[in-house]
Amino acid sequence: MMLSMAQHAAKTIGHGPLWLQRLASLKVTLLLLLLLVTGVTAYYFNGRQGQLLLATPLLLLTVNLLAAIVVHPRFRHHPPLLVFHLALLALLGLVTIGRLTYLEGQVEVTSGGAFPGTLHHNNAGPLHDWRLGQVQFRLEQFSIDYDIGGNRGKTRCLVHWLDEEGRRRQGTVGDHHPLVLHGYRFYTTHNKGFAADFLWHPESGEAEQGTVHFPAYPGHKHRQAMEWQPPGYNERLWTQLDFDETIIDPEEPSQFRPPREHHLIVRYGEHRHELRPGERLALPGGTLEYRGLTTWMGFKVRSDWTMPWLLAAVLVAVLSLGWHYWRKFASKPWLEEESN
Amino acid sequence: MERELLLLWIAIGTYVLCGTIAIFAVILGKRPERTVLGLLVVGLLLHGGSILLRWLRLDHGPYLTMFEILSSNVFSLLLFYAIAYWRYRPIRPTAAIIMPLMFVMMAWLVLSSPGEGHLPPTYDTTWLVIHILFGKVFLGSVLVAVGMAGIIMLRHFNIATEKLARLPENHRLDDLAYRFMALGLIFDTLMLIAGAIWAQDAWGRYWAWDPLETWSFLTWLTMAIALHLRVTYRPLPLRGAVMVMTVFVLAFLTFFGVPFISTAPHQGAV
User: Fold this and answer.
1) Model confidence at A81, in pLDDT bands (50, 70, 90)?
2) What DSSP string runs through A305-334?
3) For burial by CB atoms within 10 Å, which of A184, A317, B102, B177 has the most?
4) Which residue of A has its CA nearest to B172?
């Protein structure tokens, strides 16, 4: 039989005013856990939109948990249970702080080029202290293995960077090994492609170097074209990379690399030109020099200083839960009770 | 490959024989417990040999294709159950509940293609192995609890009540099921932690609400609710049994159902 309401009330009453005891009720905890299940389900089926669906029950559970720790004597009599619930509180607090201060984004870096210091796309918490300007690294080159069947293998990026003391360092980053600088973690992704290296010579002034990143390869192998605007030039140019070579052969192991022979098709207005490495194209206002083809790598960038603390909190939670159950069950071994 | 499959088929044959004896033992009121345990151990040794041969041949663990995932789960669940069977004598007749469940997984395994999968670089990490091992202990714990819950439910519906009379009282079964559920919660939590560490290294995020993560978290929450309900209301054994079954169904669907609907890189089976 379930406990009657009176029995239940007598069992759960602890210290503090009545409103606090009601707030600390285990029945409220159960209702809020069910609300969280509903919130998570709704969030999932809503295409992961509407963070309030998660935040509301979590906030209410935090209040309920705080009240329970204050009110229920059970927590004072069972230290592991207290530690477990305090760790849960710490976890909820850290997740909140993490959402306020995090940053995640993507950036494409050209082989032989430096990290531009800005991200192409990003999401950041309102309290993120932007330190990306301090990050300096250069992607020298990268290699990606492909297995038979065109399955992607290991990614290795040779990187030079300045550490936090300003010393020059070198290393290889790739799968499971991000580049960590000033609290930002740069992860290689499957996103990579070819990049055309140009030099724009204006009619007056210094030449400017720039690269055009073609869409990711081999994901968009049949759409290797990009529209862009050279600095100081009024019109947009349409550029297409053209080559016949098979780069990733599904019949044998291979590596991602630029094609040995290729040319660019450049269109502006009604004009169409083909450019090979070293060739120049005269345009109104300047000359475009095509220097050659290289590659680009897409990095995922993440900053969240709460991560090691989250791990610590969750480990404390699970260890204290294990400790609690161990004490509880070891005091009354089931087999011994059964044999009695 | 032929040797691996041969060992696997013999192991499955041994499991089926073991399960059939366990079911008829309950129906006929016999206690061939040593035979059942012996057959279970022989099946596990053969099955373990098959998994090991495949691991050595492919140079990765059994966690890529549905065939590998089913095979390793049949092995780990039966290994966990065999330990419980050996350690907790009074609940040995629960084999009549557990083995038919395992037969379903074995039938699915037999129908799966034993072809090879490609090991993505994101799967080439020790954290994935740790994550999977914790998950297997979690599911094994819940499976043992399901054995007790099944007996409680059969008794409630007056099915084979006399045959199940030699098992402990319902409240004792319920207590043991609770202990295995508590163990399951701890290992489910550890599985989520190890998975988050793996996801952080592999995809640069420790949690992204992908289908497998979301359904794993819902399973964890359901388990937490089940254990909280127990502390708050001390429900009847039947209600405890229903909660155990609910957690098992949710965990089973998460492990083996979500991979079919997920397009995220964290798929379970790829």
Assistant:
1) very high
2) TTHHHHHHHHHHHHHHHHHHHHHHHHTS-H
3) B177
4) A338
